[in-house]
Amino acid sequence: METTCPVATFKLPPCHFLPSIKSGITSSRFLHFNLRSKQLEFQNHGFSSQFIFRCSSSRKFLISPREHEKLKYAQQLLDNLPKRDVNSWSALIVAYCQRRNFAQVFGLFQIMVGEGLQPSGFALASLIKVSSSLGEIGLCKQLHGRSVRTGFGLDSGVRAALIIMYSRCGGLDDAQRVFEETSVLALDILLWNSIIAAYISHGCWVQVLRLFCKMVSFGVVAPTELTYVGVVNACGSAGEEKYGAMVHGRIVKDGLEAANIWNSLVTFYGKCGNLQHASQLFERIPRKDVVSWNAMIAANEQRVEGENAVGLFRRMLKVEPRVQPNRVTFLSLLSAVSGLSYLNWGREIHAHIIRLGLEIDTSIANSLITLYSRCKEVGTAREIFEGMLSRDVISWNSMLAGYEQNEQQGRCFDIFKRMMLSGIEPDSHTLTIILNATSHDSSGFVHCQRGKEIHGYILRRITPGGVSLSVSNAMLKMYVKFNLIADAEKIFKAVKNRDSYSWNEMMDGYSRNGKFEDAVKIYLDILKQGFPLDHLSLSILVTSCGRLVSLQLGKQFHTVVAKLFFNQDCPHQESLLSINNALISMYSKCGSIKDAAQVFLKTKRKDVFSWTAMITGCAHHGMAIEAFQLFERMKTEGIKPNKVTFLALLMACAHGGHVQEGSYYFDSMFNDYGLSPSIEHYACMIDLFGRSGQFDRAKSLVESGITLFKPYHDDILNLWKVLLGACHASKQLDLGVEAATKILELEPEDEATYILLANLYASSGLWEDAIKVRKAMRDRGLRKEVGCSWIDTENRRHVFVAGDVIHPQRKEIYEKLAQLNFSCRRIGYTPMTELVLHDVDEMEKEAILGCHSEKLAVSFGLLKCGGVIRVMKNLRVCEDCHRWMKFASLLEKREILLRDSQRFHLFRDGSCSCGDYW
């Protein structure tokens, strides 16, 4: 008789021992046929459950037709069992769980329970994990209750699944409760890793570190590779380099050298900014995989070391055995190159992406759009956008940001309309971008209206959570840019959780609109609320002092800056540059060019704004030669000038009459640097040619500018106004009348044009024409801007007008003025009565000239101020006052610094820094 092995001792052989080189369903059926021929089918349920699980097991989530056939065959085996036990049911349930076939999983579970059977602990854990994927918290709690009732509540695998389940459903406290209900001795590594993973998924980095400390202190179980990977990643995300280094020491002590641990350590040091340690660890990895390379490339990208990131990528392509980059590699690389704006490198990486067929990946395409947009290749970015098979909201935002960054607002709005029509709901980032696009042109009525329309759209779709902070800040910025300060105040007051940007934008809005006291109040509110002052806050305050022309207040804020930032141990050394630039500009605008130069010289790292601020200061102070020298030094330092730099140079030329140099710089803008001149550059050149008597060139430039800026009404007006001012200074009647006529055709209510035209007629002896112009001005209800001068002393501003009779110290002021007038006449001063453009006698003309506001301010300054007398005037200083101040500075042996609407005049020992050219 033939002897057979007992069924109980029969075990299913491993797949690689099957008698066919084919795997899967064919091999399983072959084995099943042999089992049936030996009459072993279904004699042992343990064997049947193993066989069902082997037929159906797979780690794939996406089921191919072949895998589906295997699963169907396993189902048939279960259906044919004469008596189905727990193990058979559990095997098939687990298989369906692995394939995420949720409907079939719970269908089988219901049938199984209906037959009076309960799933095994492993199957129950699989069911719990599946329910967490569905996000059904009610179902999750039912399964939790069943696990307790069926006696699996203490099963480690089930408890681990419950922790993961509650964590995925947002119940972190419930997950922690499940963990804490387990006795210390029953806490195995599976439970520790599960609770640590739960806190990691919720970004609770500090709690992760505390759990790790508790785990080590208990000493019941030792951390595994998975534990260390999670904890090291938590240290990196929390920025805890010191703690992470201690964990690194334990890893070395435990002798763990798995690749995933090495990779996590590289990532950790990269996130903490310690590229040196990250690089050392990376080089020690014996067999670097793609994750290793990605970690090191990402570390360099995060620390803005784009060149190193690209170098690593090129090195990665050359190593043996070959490591193929993946989408993560390219996402880090594209971000790195975008930060550098290196177009050629971007194209090189794009070529690799195409060769690997990754260009269809939505995230890759989004990064490519960002790359080309930052490299000013917005057309190429648009081609990639249009070629995308599927677009998400990030795709639309990337394209919108590309147009907004390249100041193509029209196309930005067009893309936004397409996005709305496509059914994609804009997010807060979308709205922030489109609002910023409206803010680019602060003088455009159309953009202002569009911004208000978007504001209305935001109000209509406000969610219970309210408007996001980024959107509120963008709206605040928009209204500030359009000088709608009342609307900006409403937005600011509605923002509950203000950040530094909110405070700074409102402060800047007040400063731009001349509400300097309100700007200082914002500063005081920041201090009261304990909000930290950043470098931008102080830069805005210092800039406000420059606009207010308050040297005393500016110096006080300079002291605050020195206390907060000029400290060798200060962690904000990089922030000093913007503050220094603001200080240079403030001191220049307040007339202290020496202080500006000192700050400039002490600034170790200068950017284009530092140089431009100093050149602008020299231009306003009539130091044209110094401005030219600074520009040459700037070029030597390798700093590329911008449009504002050239505007400062042209102002210096206009104030000094340097026609040849001005023409050179104007041409150099485009020829050498590719910068197109703006309306301001044309205005400077027209002023330069007009004041030097070259009116044909000035008029020709006006006509060229009109052709170039024709669609813009305000730009055309500005060019004619500059020409009219030059004609008025040089008494060019015919061209001046032509310019005034053009201006009044476009803007009939411009009172300054009437004044200049009337004065032009009067200076030419055409009194009747002057009277007609003044009558036309009165008929329109227009009034001349009142000239005034002011001086600051003892933290108070004193303002004077011509013939002032309201100042409390008027008696002493007029006595000092009379004394000065008498002394000045003795050494050669005579009033320039021809400047009084009224048909009155000489005595009255002298009386009018004798009490101009700047003379009163200087007289008061001589009585009350020590050192340099600093006087500000809202209009251009007249020639008589300019001449009188030269005599006054000689007599009093004092320096008088006068800032009018054009520039600074420094009077010293009988001469002026402008050289009588202004």
Can you offer a commentary on this structure?
By secondary structure, the protein is mainly alpha-helical. It has a six-stranded mixed β-sheet with strand order 2-1-3-4-5-6, with helices on one face. α47 (879-892) links the parallel β3 (869-873) and β4 (896-899). α35 (624-636) runs antiparallel to α36 (643-656) and α38 runs parallel beside α40 (713-730). The longest helix has 18 residues, at 713-730. It is elongated, with a radius of gyration of 40 Å. Residues 1-65 have low confidence and may be disordered.
Could you provide a short overview of the structure?
Strands 2-1-3-4-5-6 form a six-stranded mixed sheet, covered by helices on one side. The protein is mainly alpha-helical and 918 residues long.
Report how far apart the termini are: 128 Å
Mean pLDDT: 83
Number of distinct helices: 47
Number of extended strands: 6
Q: SS-based structural class?
A: mainly alpha
User: Main sheet, how many strands, which sense, barrel?
Assistant: 6 strands, mixed
Task: Identify low-pLDDT runs.
Answer: 1-65
In the sheet with the most strands, the strands line up as 2-1-3-4-5-6
- Overall spatial form: elongated
> Over all CA atoms, what is the radius of gyration?
40 Å
Strand content: under 5%
Helix content: 55-70%
